[in-house]
Amino acid sequence: MATGFWILRHAIVEENARAVLYGIMDVAVCEVSLVEQFSIYHGLARRLPHDAAWRVTPLSRTRRTAEAIFAAGYPRKPVEIEPELIEQSLGEWQGLVHAALPARLELAAHAFWPLGGEERPPGGESMAEVILRAGQALERLAAEHDGGDVVIVSHGGTIRAMLAHAIAARPDTVLHFAIQNLSLTRLERHPEGWRVVCVNELAGV
Asked: Which CATH class is domain 3-201?
């Protein structure tokens, strides 16, 4: 039997945080958006499997997103923290305004990500390293919940990393995927390997 992964990107963060590279900084979600996007939370509450295990990352924006889905009608579940599914660490570059980053890069920036897939920020990690740790976490969760479903609230970079693991894509290749806030990406782990069911879907809009 397949293990189903229902992977969500967290709610949009508050405006000041969006002005900088926040990486693994524990920034707050935008409280106004939680109200304005209730239809999305309600749609997710109806669509997500009600017998699933739930995982969030150590950053509060993922827990806050899960709480908003519960408040929109999903039956409340225990939520466990999965440290290996945290966002890419940008190390010393975290907190920089976006315009300040290009001068710090040794490699070419990616068209759709602040830095290339092989670039490692000082004190941080490359997307290639995120793919490795996220892939290991997925395989472990697939074994722990064989035949069941797992809802994961994670981050844009990490969701791209999970996709890279599933389809054996290079870091720069997978950064071409758009992953919007509150979007749903579904993966299945079959005995034969990984299958991608959907990417970047929005419920209730």
From this structure: alpha beta
The 10 Å Cβ neighbour count of residue 143 is 10
Confidence (pTM): 0.96
Which sequence spans correspond to the domains of the chain? 3-201
Spatial distance between the Cα atoms of 66 and 52, rounded to a whole number of angstroms: 13
3-state secondary structure of 97: strand
Question: Distance (Å, rounded) from C-alpha 172 to C-alpha 128?
Answer: 9
Contact yes or no for 179/198 (Cβ under 8 A): no
Mind listing the pLDDT tens digit for each residue in 86-115?
999 999 999 999 998 888 888 888 888 989
Q: CB count, 10 Å around CB of 18?
A: 12
Which pair of structure tokens corresponds to residue 144? Answer: 């722990």
Query: Residue 54: in which H helix or E strand, if any?
Result: strand 53-56
